[in-house]
Amino acid sequence: MRDTTKHQGLRNQLANLLQAKGITNENVLQAIRKIPRHLFIDSSFEEHAYKDKAFPIAAEQTISQPYTVAFQSEVLDLKGGEKVLEIGTGSGYQTAVLLELKAEVYTIERQHELFKRTSMFLPKIGYKPKRFIFGDGYKGLPEQAPFDRIIVTAGAPYVPNPLLAQIKIGGMLLIPVGDKEQVMTLFIRKSPKEFEKHELGDFRFVPMLKKKN
């Protein structure tokens, strides 16, 4: 669990690269500079940790490309204290960014291997969400709704209605929608029945899976 000045230098370079690619939120860039991303992947592949690319992790999933994490985090426009539901804990890297942005995070993972690994690992390096949940992201977390923000970190073939239903008025759902390629889609809830929709460009995510009982 080493974190050296060399790692810090690589994180600074990564943050500068993301800034050059258009990330402007200083709190997001600060989170990228701070979080030891190399600890989130197998140590034998450490040299890949600070490149701006996705990388395979356990259970045939990936740790998202840093630009994607920064982009989604910036769109959420967190000021601190927001109640956030994350669908797809994965490696926990996006979770850590949300926690650095002072959000109150509830995070759901459907792969049991990843759920076990990440729910033990994140607190070890100082990141403690409100709750880790092993479950079906398509259903959201109705018992804790409504949320200020819901962020989905896997490609969804369609927008699950339960997620739309669990956003506060004035809140946001950010979800990559599509099969092989996804369009990053932002829904802002204007009233109980009215949503404003924005399409924010093409991305590639692993598919969002339903819970297999």
How are the strands of the largest sheet arranged?
Answer: 5-4-3-6-7-8-9
Radius of gyration: 16 Å
By DSSP, the count of extended strands is 9
Beta-strand residue percentage: 15-25%
Largest sheet: 7 strands, mixed
Question: What would you say this structure looks like, in words?
Answer:
Catalyzes the methyl esterification of L-isoaspartyl residues in peptides and proteins that result from spontaneous decomposition of normal L-aspartyl and L-asparaginyl residues. It plays a role in the repair and/or degradation of damaged proteins. Pfam families: PCMT (PF01135). With 213 residues, the protein is of the alpha/beta class. It has helices at 5-20, 26-34, 66-76, 93-100, 112-124, 161-165, and strands at residues 55-56, 62-63, 83-87, 104-109, 131-134, 147-152, 167-177, 182-189, 195-203. The strands form two sheets. A seven-stranded mixed sheet has the order 5-4-3-6-7-8-9. A two-stranded antiparallel ribbon has the order 1-2. Strand 8 (182-189) and strand 9 form a beta hairpin. It is globular, with a radius of gyration of 16 Å.
